[in-house]
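Dear colleague,

Thank you for sharing your sequence with our group. We've completed the structure prediction you requested, and as agreed, I am returning the results in plain text so they can be pasted directly into your records. Please verify that the sequence below matches your submission; if there's any discrepancy, let me know and we will rerun it promptly.
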Amino acid sequence: MATARSNLEAMADWLAATAKKIFLEDGEHGTTAHIWVKGYPLFVGVTGSEDGKDALRALLEMAARGGADGCGVVTEGWASGGDPESLARAVAWRASGRSLEKLPGRTEMLCIGLASPAGIEHREFEIQRAGSKVRLRKQPPTEPYLNRFLSDLPWPTPPAGVRRRARRAARGRTKTGGSHG
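Please find the predicted structure tokens below.
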């Protein structure tokens, strides 16, 4: 079933609200895959290893091929400034064996992404920690980190008649059966 753009945005907003609630209650949010089937969300925890990331992409591809309404990912990550110098500093820091968690000037982020046949939606929140208090501040989406998992999923192509009816409906014209009598 094709997912309307407004429905995609509503699912992304719901996923962001749910992820924020879990994060604020637990102080963290593990990487999870989210798959909507007939309007119901299913959740699967994913490890952060390369094998886990490969399995995550494979799972999302299978769900898309199978006709899922939408596929999403929630994870924590870090932003280093967005410019080439900051990126180079982060790469050098990590190459020296140090954790990105300790990188000076980095920003901790909660990233939410959702894809459907209607497109991709992202929500990003800066994680602000002060002692035992944690706050999430909404950020405008930047270069979507989660596109590695969500872009180019193999959504089924609806039959030609369904595509034509969808295009007509989008233009405000529908074909009706006419009146008898």
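Summary note from our side: Residues 5-26 form the longest helix (22 residues).

Kind regards,
the structure core
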